[in-house]
Specification:
- With 447 residues, the chain is of the alpha+beta class.
- It folds into two domains: 265 residues, Naphthalene 1,2-dioxygenase Alpha Subunit, Chain A, domain 1 (Alpha-Beta Complex); 112 residues, Rieske [2Fe-2S] iron-sulphur domain (Rieske Iron-sulfur Protein).
- It contains 13 helices and 19 strands.
- The strands form five sheets. A seven-stranded antiparallel beta sheet has the order 12-18-17-16-15-14-13. Strands 5-4-3-6 form a four-stranded antiparallel beta sheet, with no helix packed on it. A three-stranded antiparallel beta sheet has the order 2-11-10, with no helix packed on it.
- Helix 9 runs antiparallel to helix 10 and helix 10 packs across helix 11.
- The N terminus is likely disordered.
- Bound molecules: FE2/S2 (inorganic) cluster and fe (ii) ion (FE2).
- FE2/S2 (inorganic) cluster (FES) binds next to loops.
Length: 447
C-alpha cells in the first residue's frame, strides 16, 4: 500500500457521474450531501445494505446464547453468540409471520431462539428446531431450508463484531485490507469497555463523525488542548500529521516523525502534563486514572522537564508489566487516529481508546445516533463486566472536550441548511480522511 498524503482518486472503473451531489473536486464537498433527503435515501439503499459495519463489541455477548440487536435504517439484525468462538447474525424476523425474535439485548436460554407469537424455535446456528402443531401446515411447505433464519455475513476484528447484509459483499478481511494491518499494533482486541454512552444529535451522521476525523479544529475548538498554539505552531509535522488512505474508505494518521512541543515557550513537561490533564478531565477516556496516577507520581520527583515524557512512558510500562497489563509496544504508531469506513473513528493512546460510531437516526438526514465507547486494556483478572449503554445523554452533560465538539456539530448543521452554504472547502492535508470517506460513499452510490 502506498503512502498518500492526499486523498486517493475514485477507484478506476467506477463511474460516479450519476450520483447526485457527488465529489468532483477532492477539496470540495457539496452541502447537500448532509441535508438532502434524496442523498440520504440513496445511502439507505446503496450504502448501508452493502457495507461492513460494526454491529457490537464482543463483550456485549460473552456467553453462548447472548444476543444483541443492531439497527440501521429500517433493518434489525440479531447478533448471537453461538459458541465460545463463533458469532452469528440473523435478520430479526420470524420465518412464520415475521415477528421480531429479540429486542435490545439479552440471552436466548437453553440455546433456543423462541418466537414470542406462536412459539416457533431455532437453534443458535439458525436451524429450525420446532414448529408448533406443524400438521396444520401444507405438507412440504415448511422445509428445513425455508425455515432457517435468514443470515447476514459476520466477522470479528479489533474486538468488534461486523455484519454485512449483502451476501455478495467481499469477506470482512478483504474489506478491511490496509486498515486491519495499520491498526493492529494498537491492541484493540485486548481492550475492554470502561463506559459506553450515546447522544442523539440533530445533525447528519457524516458531519457528526467528521468532527473527530481531523485535528485541525483543536486550535479554536479546544482551548484546553491548544494551550495558545499559534498558526506557525500548527504545522503538519508537529501536530496535524499525515494520513494513509485506503481504497475501502478507511484511513489512519501516520506516526509523527518526531515528538515536538507544539506551543512556544512551554517545556516538554508542562505541555505533556497539561495535555494529559485536559484529556482526562475533558474526555474521561483518552487519558484515565491509570495515567494520571503515574503522572502524579513523577511530578513528585525531580525530573528534567525535557525528560518528562520519556520518564512517563518508562513508568507506565514498568507499572503495566507489574500489573499484567498487555500494553501495545511503545511505538508511535500505537496512537494517532483511525477511521474504519463508513462510520467508526478511533483515537487510541496509552492502551486506551475512544471509539465513535455514528448512524443515521431513521430517515431524517439531519438526525444521528452518536455512540462513544471508552475502552482500555485491563490488568490481568480485572476485566470489567458486560457493558451497558448509557443515555441518551444531553449535550450539556458530556465532558468538556466532547461538549465542545458536539456544539460545533450542531452549529455546522445549522449553517449547512442555509443558503449561505453550497459547498465545504477541505484541506487535502488536514482533512484528507474526510474526503476519502466521501469518495468511497460515492463509489457505493454509483453501483
Ligand atoms: S410469527 Fe413467529 S411463530 Fe408465528
Ligand atoms: Fe474535537
Amino acid at each position: 500500500m502506498t503512502t498518500q498524503a492526499e486523498p486517493r482518486p475514485v477507484q478506476p472503473g467506477t463511474d460516479t457521474s450519476g450520483v447526485p451531489f457527488r465529489i468532483t473536486d477532492p477539496g470540495r464537498v457539496p452541502s447537500q450531501r448532509y441535508v438532502s433527503p434524496e442523498f440520504s435515501r440513496l445511502e439507505k439503499e446503496k450504502l448501508w445494505p452493502h457495507v461492513w459495519q460494526m454491529a457490537c463489541r464482543l463483550e456485549e455477548i460473552p456467553r453462548p446464547g447472548d444476543f444483541t440487536e443492531y439497527k440501521i435504517g429500517d433493518q434489525s439484525i440479531l447478533v448471537v453468540r453461538e459458541s465460545e468462538d463463533s458469532v452469528k447474525a440473523y435478520f430479526n424476523a420470524c420465518r412464520h409471520r415475521a415477528t421480531a425474535l429479540g429486542v435490545g439485548s439479552g440471552t436466548f436460554h437453553g440455546g433456543q431462539i423462541v418466537c414470542p407469537y406462536h412459539g416457533w424455535r431455532w437453534n443458535l446456528d439458525g436451524s429450525n428446531s420446532y414448529v408448533y402443531a406443524q400438521r396444520g401446515f401444507k405438507p412440504g411447505c415448511l422445509d428445513a431450508d425455508f425455515l432457517k433464519l435468514r443470515e447476514c455475513q459476520v466477522g470479528t476484528l479489533f474486538g468488534m463484531v461486523f455484519i454485512n447484509m449483502d451476501p455478495a459483499a467481499p469477506p470482512l478481511h478483504e474489506a478491511m485490507a490496509g486498515i486491519a494491518e495499520a491498526l493492529a499494533p494498537i491492541g484493540f482486541e485486548r481492550m475492554r469497555v470502561r463506559w459506553w454512552r450515546h447522544v442523539v444529535l440533530p445533525a447528519n451522521w457524516k458531519i457528526a463523525q467528521e468532527a473527530f476525523m481531523e485535528a485541525y479544529h483543536v486550535m479554536q475548538a479546544h482551548p484546553s488542548l491548544a494551550m495558545g498554539m499559534s498558526d506557525e505552531d500548527f504545522d503538519v509535522d508537529s501536530f496535524a500529521g499525515e494520513f494513509e488512505c485506503f481504497p475501502g474508505g478507511h484511513a489512519h494518521s501516520l506516526p509523527l516523525s518526531e515528538m515536538k512541543v507544539p506551543v512556544q515557550g512551554m517545556s516538554a513537561a508542562e505541555y505533556f502534563v497539561q495535555y494529559n490533564n485536559a484529556l482526562y478531565f475533558g474526555t474521561d477516556a483518552y487519558a484515565t486514572e491509570r495515567e494520571m496516577f503515574i503522572q502524579q507520581g513523577l511530578l513528585e520527583r525531580d525530573i528534567e522537564p525535557e525528560q518528562f515524557p520519556a520518564a512517563f512512558f518508562q513508568a507506565l510500562y514498568d507499572y503495566a508489566a507489574g500489573a499484567g497489563i498487555a500494553l501495545p509496544p511503545p511505538a508511535q504508531n500505537t496512537s494517532g487516529y483511525g477511521h474504519i469506513f463508513p462510520n467508526i473513528t478511533v483515537l487510541p493512546a496509552y492502551g486506551n481508546s475512544i471509539i465513535y460510531r455514528v448512524r443515521p437516526n431513521g430517515d431524517n438526514p439531519e438526525s444521528c445516533i452518536f455512540e462513544v465507547w471508552a475502552v482500555q486494556i485491563p490488568a490481568e483478572g480485572d476485566e470489567p463486566g458486560q457493558p451497558e449503554l448509557e443515555g441518551p445523554i444531553p449535550v450539556d452533560d458530556w465532558p468538556q472536550i466532547l461538549k465542545e465538539d458536539f456544539y460545533n456539530i450542531l452549529a455546522q448543521q445549522q449553517g449547512l441548511r442555509t443558503q449561505g452554504s453550497d459547498e465545504l472547502v477541505l484541506s487535502e492535508s488536514y482533512e484528507a480522511m474526510i474526503v476519502n470517506n466521501h469518495r468511497t460513499i460515492d463509489e457505493y452510490l454509483a453501483r
